[in-house]
Records
---
Amino acid sequence: MLIVMNSQASEENINKVVDFIKQKGFDAHVSKGEDHTVIGAVGRKVIDKRDIELLDGVKEVIRITSPYKLVSRVFKGEDTIIEIKDVKIGGNNIAMIAGPCTVESYDQMDATAEKLSECGVKLLRGGAFKPRTSPYAFQGLGEEGLKILREVANKYNMLVTSEVMEVSQIPMFLKYVDILQVGARNMQNFNLLKSLGEIRKPVLLKRGLSATIEELLMSAEYIMAGGNREIILCERGIRTFEHMTRNTLDISAIPVIQKISHLPIIVDPSHATGLRDKVAPMSKAAIAAGADGLIIEVHNSPETALCDGAQSLYPHDFAILFDELKQLAKVIKKHF
Amino acid sequence: MLIVMNSQASEENINKVVDFIKQKGFDAHVSKGEDHTVIGAVGRKVIDKRDIELLDGVKEVIRITSPYKLVSRVFKGEDTIIEIKDVKIGGNNIAMIAGPCTVESYDQMDATAEKLSECGVKLLRGGAFKPRTSPYAFQGLGEEGLKILREVANKYNMLVTSEVMEVSQIPMFLKYVDILQVGARNMQNFNLLKSLGEIRKPVLLKRGLSATIEELLMSAEYIMAGGNREIILCERGIRTFEHMTRNTLDISAIPVIQKISHLPIIVDPSHATGLRDKVAPMSKAAIAAGADGLIIEVHNSPETALCDGAQSLYPHDFAILFDELKQLAKVIKKHF
Amino acid sequence: MLIVMNSQASEENINKVVDFIKQKGFDAHVSKGEDHTVIGAVGRKVIDKRDIELLDGVKEVIRITSPYKLVSRVFKGEDTIIEIKDVKIGGNNIAMIAGPCTVESYDQMDATAEKLSECGVKLLRGGAFKPRTSPYAFQGLGEEGLKILREVANKYNMLVTSEVMEVSQIPMFLKYVDILQVGARNMQNFNLLKSLGEIRKPVLLKRGLSATIEELLMSAEYIMAGGNREIILCERGIRTFEHMTRNTLDISAIPVIQKISHLPIIVDPSHATGLRDKVAPMSKAAIAAGADGLIIEVHNSPETALCDGAQSLYPHDFAILFDELKQLAKVIKKHF
Amino acid sequence: MLIVMNSQASEENINKVVDFIKQKGFDAHVSKGEDHTVIGAVGRKVIDKRDIELLDGVKEVIRITSPYKLVSRVFKGEDTIIEIKDVKIGGNNIAMIAGPCTVESYDQMDATAEKLSECGVKLLRGGAFKPRTSPYAFQGLGEEGLKILREVANKYNMLVTSEVMEVSQIPMFLKYVDILQVGARNMQNFNLLKSLGEIRKPVLLKRGLSATIEELLMSAEYIMAGGNREIILCERGIRTFEHMTRNTLDISAIPVIQKISHLPIIVDPSHATGLRDKVAPMSKAAIAAGADGLIIEVHNSPETALCDGAQSLYPHDFAILFDELKQLAKVIKKHF
């Protein structure tokens, strides 16, 4: 931590700061510049930097160690590659996760999975617990939905992911799914993150609607600190002043994260845009920018879907898109 | 719901839309204008408007009924006034809630509450369960903290509020606190909101970091739909591009909410700004703009606080501020 | 325009609204629904919708005609393709505009243009007038810079674009450049837009830092209203709370604009990200999403550049990138 | 400037950075910490910090001197108080600037100014050049409008302010107005700022729609660098995701700016909210937070105003508001 003093700070001001940080368990190195005295505070303690900023004569306090460690490239130079059976995610391996917003019935899942499987998709998604803004809307099938998901996946030799909402649901999810998904609204549900750190299955962690990239990485750190090293990050759009799309998909998060973290980063174009006709161009953009995967909503009959039909692709359109995506991937030397 | 067709929409397009909405359970009224045909869809069903927007020839779909009802001024014209013992919140009664970020010990709470009580504060705050970004930071005293809070409050004849994190904690909170607080990160934790709708104690609901005012009202609707009509809304800053303050306190949310909802709206200047010296001016701004209350962090010894000391007021400074706030309130014909 | 009345609006309220809009020159069509009366206001007049919103009993006023006309797909169904000599921009023709931030000298431009020309670039960029945040920084060569730009372009048989800052500069620019560029800060300089509507050379219009897509289109409408139909729109990043990149490049603006407007939309990845190593991934994303072109900063010696060297590509890296972009374009059936 | 190296940076990396900054004209002080080597770069040169960030082994480059100097409290400790005849702005003197959006006619200005003058308002506002989003809307009376403004002001012994749009208009404005206003869209029109630095009349500088506080101060620095020390800053709302108000008025900008700058900061509640009924609460909030003034739209007949009638106060309502504001000011020990 570096403490920059005002150009007008007195000797006394400087001494008080030095005393303060020593008392908090840090070593202090004072270096006087032409304009500013800079105090380096060295130590491993946690401190709220605002406590120092409020001391007299302090201009600015600068944290120079990242708040996250385990998730950073400094800690681990090479890409994390997550392997589940014959599927790899990360490095040059792009993951395609597809399926409906919600598990509605065995037939719906079976029809959708069959189509997806024919295209070569190996990762199936589907929600079982749906928190909805209206208390009267369809709330998901619950555990029954997870069972259907598993059954259908087994039939087509696929892996499954579904969103876990609460700590108490984790054991149930472990029985049925291969990847546990944390939704955007739960990105900073630290109890949930801590519990997911203790399991040994991959976690798909979505960026919150107004979370910075640093905050996303800190949430991932929470999981890794518990010992679970298999985390897939997911960009799904941030809230901005532009309202022609539901959210603004932050494609630049892909290269930014890939530079500072070793974890795979995938993209959810369905929730980010909220409209079917924007899913294809944004999927292509994500792959071209180097994303490690996509999670796309596909429904066998979007017009009768109980949830998010408007942003779900028809299986036929998905097949065409997937084909184009494979060609794009080849250009940038990656593959699905 | 109004469906505006493109100026170039064909008869066939129009008929398809009419058929679609009838099939979804709505009545349709077609009205042809000079440029645009407008179709009014009348009915009580829930429908995803994007499903209609994707039909050919549709320019725009406009929802004309608010998504919230019980919380609106249309539903209830006069201000909701929440009464707990001799304390009133709402109407011309401004509430002052004060106390430390976290309950650290009996002595700390006792020392702080004594000072606050001397100033005439009747509502005491203090966190018992603290979700922290770092797993190594102080996580709160848990139920022990709630007990201390209750004991100290009883000693000084005060009421207490504390943040509840999970559905499972509700029964415990009901034993100790007078107002259950929902934090910004839980504003859309619909399971929690639903459960709080079933209790009969007031709920203090904070606006999410990037939540719109409409979303805040929809979350309040969730609680009211369950039968709990005692909700206090709380503005606590939104995330913007400006970073000289932690968040941007949206003072205009006060008059906006007071126009469209009957619920009281209070302001949290401590979390919004994150720095002690900004708490006073923003508290004054909130009261002058007509806020129904404030929730302010005060600590008997901020420099040794385990959490958020940098944004906590000294009891002495709080006393001066409270005095000024009372004078400001008088000018706008309200009172603490 | 549709005026939705409150469910509690009286007959008198409705009549007053009808009188008001008639007096403003509109026809009124009243249609009574179950909950709400809706008044359709038909006419060609300009009216500030807030004037109606303030009348008693009015719930909401909804504009149903777009504020822009000439730039919309409704006005012109097929893509606008801008032709300058042998270069086409729009439709399936992707434009590559490259060059340094600023024209520094003949030698610098000559060295850079030579490299670009070898790669097949036909459109050269370079600033002559540089508004800088510091009054002591390099302010550009002025007209001398435009002369160099023209001379070098002629040598390599290229076309040129440069940013015009003020109405008074337009005649000078017409002498030297093929495309006049309007910077993000001038997107709503209406005097400048009006004057550019009167010329007959293409205009490259950049989206403002916090401009909505609708505002960008309205600015383009300003130019088209003057009779100049050759406008190239440019997405260059918007301001959000994320600060790991200078701005957030809104890639979804590409498909959004292509659906509602016939004008070509290109992307500036250099200014959006502000860092060299993010330019390649974001360029690829833009092309994959269907952008009609790119404008990229390339400098023959970035480390000695007088301006924005940090976001300028080396000619060698640009050549590799351009090659990849051509392959990506092929996949989505477009070409440079 | 401090350059923080990665924990894994090599000796060679460090030496290259030292060479680089020396070559750019800085002195280098290397200080090796436990985790990180920090290099202090001391000197007066201007350098793009991204150029250093791109060097191998560099983790972060931190600017420790503010980009602005003359406008800062460090440069001048006491409040700047601007005096024009018998009017003072700054310190404990709150300024009230009021008047219509646009000068429409002599009679309109006379009627409005008469009412304002009766309330004790000494500063009259009115636009003469109106850049409008629609080319068909009223564009202002031009110089004729300035003449009317001056004439009416003289009749009632008032001072006037009006918005200057271009460098070429400055001499004309100097003939008629007492304070030259720079609009939000021109906050970074550096040519205009530079020219305003050369005059000797006060400038009212509005914060851009998406400008940070730091950028606002840098624009003020531009004017001060030219020698004009009389600048009034103005907060007028920033663009956020909330759309129930036109913009989000950033009230916290008041105490933030007052801490770091000596210049007066006033607030424009009319443009920020865009609706008449929000002007009063936000004006009160601004004064209570310590603003040095307000600029409010008042029109003798808002319903027939050619521009922004919806956000203009009736003279009668203004009189009541002004009275309340005076009482609020007294509470915080300031006065109009």
---
Amino acid sequence: MPELRKDPIIDRWVIISTERGKRPVFFIEEPPPPKAAMCPLCPGNEHMTPAEVYAVRPSNSSPNSPDWLLRVIPNKFPALRIEGSLNKEGVGLYDRMNGIGAHEVIIDTPVHGETLSNMSVRSIQNIFGAFKERVLDLAKDKRFRFTIVFKNHGTIAGASLDHSHSQLISLPVVPKRISEEISGSMNYYRQKDRCIFCDIIAQEQEDNVRVIYENKRFISLSPYASRFPFESWILPKNHESHFVFPSDDDGYRDAADALSMVLKKQDKVLNSPPYNFMIHTAPLGSGDMPYYHWHIEIIPRLTKMAGFEWGTGFYINPTPPEEATTYLKEADI
Amino acid sequence: MPELRKDPIIDRWVIISTERGKRPVFFIEEPPPPKAAMCPLCPGNEHMTPAEVYAVRPSNSSPNSPDWLLRVIPNKFPALRIEGSLNKEGVGLYDRMNGIGAHEVIIDTPVHGETLSNMSVRSIQNIFGAFKERVLDLAKDKRFRFTIVFKNHGTIAGASLDHSHSQLISLPVVPKRISEEISGSMNYYRQKDRCIFCDIIAQEQEDNVRVIYENKRFISLSPYASRFPFESWILPKNHESHFVFPSDDDGYRDAADALSMVLKKQDKVLNSPPYNFMIHTAPLGSGDMPYYHWHIEIIPRLTKMAGFEWGTGFYINPTPPEEATTYLKEADI
């Protein structure tokens, strides 16, 4: 059983994979990713994956048969276990609980080689729809406090399979970064009675030097204090705290369009870089939050320079966000 | 002039290198590190570096001549500029200041190819002594609030030169991670009237499953909630809040011995991995802190898996610290 352990000094939980403990030899001679003659995520190979928990498929087709447009399956090698109780306990001055959680894989497309940047907006909309369905379903499990939805694209960004897929992890704790954003935005709200994200959007629209793309309901921008070169965010222009309750009357159409545009531009300017994206949202258990605003953070993995950043939380970004914006905005796609 | 910009939502400053802005082409075809036929850090090539600000050399030798044991020089490509005023200002709802700071390089040894893990303890003691002298000298500059001392060893860990060197950056702000540790340990102190690091040391000595090495004044351990496989910390066993005022009566001898041992063990077990270390200390301007305890954090760079960690602050560590400890402790060196 993996464990969740809390750093006693700062408020951060870590997953410790006590079971599949990686020995030194693993790091010295890292095994190459399996040359999948047969891709386990391709149609026809459904028997190679755990049984699906959600799919987009014709109404007359049966679960785990090949004619799907999108599938969600439990991760075959989950970071957390779905069965069991949390068993929260103290160990001297430390705090731990069992590593209970859900870890699922969203197979974005049946087409091996298709990526988010070359698929249709409609397909991306399906992916957002799958995120929503799974997040809502997992929220019924009262052990979970938060579901992280994310994508690792490319080996450098941590993807272990080529076939385009996203992931989600449901956790019994709220990740530190999300808690920090919530308390930071709550402080701002206490002072101003306004959502800081809404204020940022207003200022960015006025300044107009860090706006990458806009459609009716969504805006993409390079954050003023970007940690990484070409980091970009996508936010709903109207206030929405929860990802799963979009005001987009056509179910994430504009979010999908904005994500598609940013990824296409990123591919063009940076020659299809590896990247990660994460959906930051209010925790599901919480009601509507007037101070928090869901958004997507996209980080192309361009730099090795994150050396001491890990240890200090201090970032050096070699590309000003205004320059990154100019490149992305002007990219002809 | 580089800029320091503050994330408006969470309390984190970022250095934006507005001058040497890196264009997309840099990331697409990253130039290989210069094949230094002549290493600028080797004795005899002092003319290739800025003039030294500190050195360990015979008393009859003159600055910037070749017969040194250790040199400290300003970084030729500094992340921050030493001249100028901070000019703190608001930009709409954002906060910025000029990127004022010191960025220095400590050339650990005159011997090209020597590393911290194969040099003498006495030489490492000299390096600690240089850190101390430079930190104290830079503390006289009232623009600076904190000096980060760190090392990037190996290309993957961010080193751009082979010749063994450490770095320091003096900043007009305290890095987020340090502030978090200080406020976390202050909370603990308020409740218990004890230093949390002192309590951790006591518990680790009793549990004896995460102690890698101990000498008279220092202890090395794998943190209970390690973020990374084989992460290790070195702490003074007696309470000390500031790195520059060690109670070690032989000037960092035991700290140097502990660092030497941990790095030798790490080399043995993990086949000389790239690594980063950082010195976490109370800010110099602050008086003695009964709740904060300086220490060194060493992170071997073994995993690419830090994909979504950057975005969520949530870490998955594939090697339990107890297992890492066993390997390191038993490594025969």
